[in-house]
Design brief:
Layout lengths: L7 H26 L10 H54 L7 H21 L3 E2 L2 E2 L6 E4 L7 E4 L5 H7 L12 H55 L3 H28 L2 H6 L1
Antiparallel strand pairs: 1-2, 3-4
Helix pairs in contact: 1-6, 2-3, 2-5, 4-5
Length: 274
């Protein structure tokens, strides 16, 4: 059958060419954006999963920042304790020197003056803070260590002992070096106890730092895995999509040529009319 009003071959060629153009545009968009999913219609289910994974990645990054700040808090705390160790060691040295029976009262008074000054410094260190948060008030800080909030680590729960077991016991006026004989009987015991308490505090701080560091490492690993999973869903495969682009380009050229041929075929009708 030969007709003028309907050209089925041309209509089909136009349809195929239009479909090829749509696919070609999608391929170009994917390659230019680097994303496999640029519109919700591209992969509705994949888009939903990718959105959830992206949110998890952002929460993981925020949790990493929080954990790193907690580590900085502990490092600052340990820095204060480290300086306190130097002060307590000096007090211990002065107390031991004060046990020398050959020292005069004037000598002992000089030792007492320095010990009192160092005790004031220890007392002032109790008030140290990190970003406005006290380092040594004994408050337990619960640090969230997972992006879903299901895991946490408590820190600083023993730091308050720095005040009660170290600074208070060695505060100005707490040690009496006025008598060499008296020093030997009590002051050395007080200083030794303070040193032991300080050593315990630093050990606890180190353990907390170690645990927080492992938590930070775990978050970094989880982030990599989440990004990898999201990439498989949302990112375009450049090699595969480049092959698709080449195929659609060829189909577009072939479709254009066939549409021209289909339109030209109607010209045969004119031969029947002349």
């Amino acid at each position: 059958m030969i007709s003028i009003n309907t050209n089925t071959a041309s209509s089909m060629a136009a349809y195929n060419l239009g479909s090829t153009n749509v696919n070609l545009q999608k391929s170009l968009q994917r390659l230019s954006s680097g994303s496999r999913i640029n519109n919700s219609s591209d992969d509705a289910g994949g888009l939903a999963v990718s959105m959830k994974l992206s949110a998890s990645i952002r929460r993981t990054e925020a949790t990493q920042a929080n954990v790193n700040n907690a580590i900085s808090f502990l490092q600052t705390q340990d820095g204060v304790l480290k300086n306190a160790d130097k002060i307590v060691s000096r007090i211990s040295e002065l107390v031991q020197l004060a046990t020398d029976v050959t020292k005069s009262t004037a000598d002992l008074n000089l030792y007492q003056t320095e010990v009192n000054s160092l005790g004031d410094q220890l007392t002032s260190m109790v008030g140290e803070a990190f970003n406005g948060v006290s380092l040594f008030d004994g408050t337990t800080l619960s640090v969230i260590t997972s992006q879903d909030g299901s895991q946490s680590i408590d820190i600083s729960d023993t730091a308050g002992d720095f005040d009660t077991d170290v600074a208070t016991n060695l505060a100005s006026g707490s040690l009496d070096l006025s008598s060499a004989a008296g020093v030997a009987t009590g002051e050395i015991t007080v200083v030794t106890a303070a040193i032991e308490a300080l050593a315990t505090l630093r050990a606890a701080n180190g353990a907390q730092q170690s645990r927080m560091t492992f938590a930070a490492d775990m978050l970094a690993i989880n982030k990599v895995n989440l990004e990898s999973a999201n990439s498989r869903i949302a990112d375009v495969d450049i090699a595969s999509e480049s092959a698709n682009l080449a195929r659609f380009n060829i189909l577009q050229q072939a479709g254009t040529a066939m549409l021209a041929q289909a339109n030209q075929s109607q010209q045969s009708v004119l031969r029947l009319l002349v």
